[in-house]
């Protein structure tokens, strides 16, 4: 076990975000060792605290105040309840910003200026501050003032145009992803941008403003589909569980359910054909290369569908694994967390919790050999660390903290 501290140990982050994109970013930073102080509205806190049920259960099996949604994105942080709309609250947050390396916020464009918490104001007092703004559409452009939410961004950014069953098949039509991928990808891109700015600051000593937009990130993450459109001039359409550029790369119905086959090259296709007892398909001039299979998918796929339906899922999976052909089951989340690989990689963990005894969390996928991710704190209760942070960081007396809590 390494004795090196986590990579971002000693870095202070001021978290003025809520819901998912921002908290996902700051949770990454916290997992990597940064000291993250989350500023929340007194009495209400992050919006997702109320996004339940389900809620975390206490040791008697009763609901606590902690919604599962909130728990998913806020571990390793400290919660400080301050009203930035009050002069004193805004002053204290500015004081914390002066001491911080990174500030992350997801207020509407210009929304923090009236509190003196905008980048222009804070950077004059803290030139090394890395200030990341996360909005639906960015700080500039004709949509900058609009609110932006993940669902609408998935639609606007093209994801829903390629997600869902084909329009000419039963159940066809646009479909959003099962999790808020625009928010999550924006949180990930924000993390990357912040780490890059932190590295740059190590050379120049200067911070900078990072302008992150959900729509930008959604468009960027269309990846190969972007280039499918740009190179052909044709917008990709929904293909259900099939792949636009690979065949066979899809869900198949089998005799006892469904499974995925993901053939990525011609040698895998040959092996696949051998497993399913149709070796002649690998030599058929209509199917012997992937481009030909894509062009002739309407001929090939029905042959594969018929054969796959004759076998059981676990039989096919075992035989395909033996042949080196990528294939897998379609697991529900309870099955995911029973999977031996997921169990071995410790993707479900437990942390002590002040009202529930313990809380489950999903593990971080970041695996650093020398300075690993740390699981230091459960997602905090609202205002749990207010007194501690104001006392230790800003030097407030107990009397001042009590007066602040009383609204004086």
From TrEMBL:
Keyword Transferase in record: yes
GO MF terms, alphabetically ordered: CoA-transferase activity
The regions listed as transmembrane in this protein's record are none
SUPFAM superfamilies from the xrefs?
Answer: CoA-transferase family III (CaiB/BaiF)
The record's section on Pfam families has: CoA_transf_3
Which InterPro entries does the entry mention?
CoA-transferase_III_domain, CoA-Trfase_fam_III, CoA-Trfase_III_dom3_sf, CoA-Trfase_III_dom_1_sf
Q: What is this protein called?
A: CoA transferase
Annotated organism of origin: Achromobacter aloeverae
Q: What is the lineage of its organism?
A: Bacteria, Pseudomonadati, Pseudomonadota, Betaproteobacteria, Burkholderiales
């Amino acid at each position: 076990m390494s004795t090196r501290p986590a990579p971002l140990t000693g870095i202070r982050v001021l978290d003025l975000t809520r819901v998912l994109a921002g908290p996902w970013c700051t949770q990454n930073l916290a997992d990597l060792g940064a000291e993250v102080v989350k500023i929340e509205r007194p009495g209400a806190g992050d919006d997702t605290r109320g996004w339940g049920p389900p809620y975390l259960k206490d040791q008697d099996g009763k609901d606590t105040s902690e919604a599962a949604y909130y728990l998913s994105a806020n571990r390793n942080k400290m919660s400080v309840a301050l009203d930035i709309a009050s002069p004193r609250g805004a002053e204290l947050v500015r004081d914390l910003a002066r001491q911080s390396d990174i500030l992350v916020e997801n207020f509407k464009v210009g929304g923090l200026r009236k509190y003196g918490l905008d980048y222009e104001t804070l950077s004059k007092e803290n030139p090394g501050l890395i200030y990341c703004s996360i909005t639906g559409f960015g700080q500039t452009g004709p949509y900058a003032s609009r609110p932006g939410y993940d669902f609408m961004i998935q639609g606007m950014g093209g994801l829903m145009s390629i997600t869902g069953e084909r329009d000419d098949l039963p159940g066809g039509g646009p479909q959003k992803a099962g999790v808020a991928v625009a928010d999550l990808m924006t949180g990930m891109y924000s993390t990357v941008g912040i780490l890059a700015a932190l590295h740059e600051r190590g050379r120049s000593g200067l911070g900078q403003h990072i302008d992150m937009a959900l729509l930008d990130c959604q468009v960027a993450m269309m990846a190969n589909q972007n280039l499918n459109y740009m190179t052909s001039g044709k917008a990709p359409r929904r293909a259900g569980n099939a792949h636009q550029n690979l065949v066979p790369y899809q869900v198949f119905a089998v005799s006892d359910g469904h499974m995925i086959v993901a053939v990525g090259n011609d040698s895998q296709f040959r092996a696949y054909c051998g497993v399913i007892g149709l070796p002649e398909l690998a030599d058929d001039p209509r199917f012997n290369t992937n481009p030909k299979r894509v062009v002739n998918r309407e001929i090939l796929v029905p042959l594969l569908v018929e054969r796959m339906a004759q076998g059981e899922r676990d039989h096919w999976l075992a035989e395909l694994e033996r042949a080196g052909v990528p294939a897998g089951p379609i697991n529900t989340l309870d099955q995911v967390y029973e999977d031996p690989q997921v169990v071995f990689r410790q993707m479900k963990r437990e942390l002590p919790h002040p009202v529930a005894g313990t809380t489950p969390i999903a593990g971080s996928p970041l695996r650093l050999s020398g300075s690993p991710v740390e699981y230091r704190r459960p997602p905090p209760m609202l205002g749990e660390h207010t007194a501690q942070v104001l006392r230790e960081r800003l030097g407030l007396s107990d009397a001042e903290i009590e007066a602040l809590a009383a609204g004086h």
